[in-house]
Design a protein that fits this description.
- This protein is of the alpha/beta class.
- The chain has one domain (about 1-155): 3-Layer(aba) Sandwich (Rossmann fold).
- It has four helices and five strands, in the order βαβαββαβα.
- It has helices at about 15-30, 45-55, 95-110, 135-155, and strands spanning about 1-5, 35-45, 60-65, 75-80, 115-120.
- Strands 2-1-3-5-4 form a five-stranded mixed beta sheet, with helices on both faces.
- Helix 1 packs parallel to helix 4 (about 135-155) and helix 2 runs parallel beside helix 3.
Length: about 160
């Protein structure tokens, strides 16, 4: 079973790209119920990533990034390169998906996906708003198309 998790804040323009991708994949999966794929829009709920990934054979996380690269650049990174344990904090808001990867692997052990891939897309605009910038919209379309193809070929 493949689990795809989109993260981000839909109210902050390009930051919502992970949520938008997961919502589009959910619509795709409704039309293809035979695929062994789950897709979740988890917004900014980092802790929930750990629980939704439990039991999956493979995990894909999609989120926005800001690295001063060209807007719309797509980075595909192995999850183990990004996972880290959180620093002590008094709020769960500080617990992000990269913390969920490290914690989930430790807590769930063999019931946590071995293969984790993270797609990060460089943002152009993080202002309040619901529209994606043009280069990010193109990258979103590319990732959606690539993930639909992956689902059709590997998880049928």
């Amino acid at each position: 079973m493949l689990t795809i998790i989109g993260c981000g804040n839909l109210n902050r323009s390009d930051d919502g790209l992970g949520a938008i991708i997961s919502q589009r994949l959910q619509q795709f999966l409704i039309k293809h119920p035979d695929l062994e794929v789950r897709a979740y829009d988890l917004g900014t709920a980092g802790m929930e990533v750990m629980f939704q990934a439990k039991g999956a054979s493979e995990l894909i996380i999609i989120d926005a990034c800001s690295t001063n690269s060209e807007p719309g650049t797509i980075f595909e990174i192995p999850g183990e390169e990004l996972e880290e344990f959180p620093q002590p904090s008094y709020t769960l808001h500080d617990f992000r998906w990269n913390h969920a990867l490290a914690a989930g692997r430790k807590i769930f052990a063999d019931d946590f996906p071995e293969k984790i891939t993270v797609y990060l897309i460089e943002v152009a605009n993080l202002d309040f708003g619901w529209e994606l910038s043009s280069p990010v919209q193109k990258a979103v379309d590319t990732v959606v198309r690539d993930l639909q193809q992956l689902c059709r070929t590997k998880y049928q």
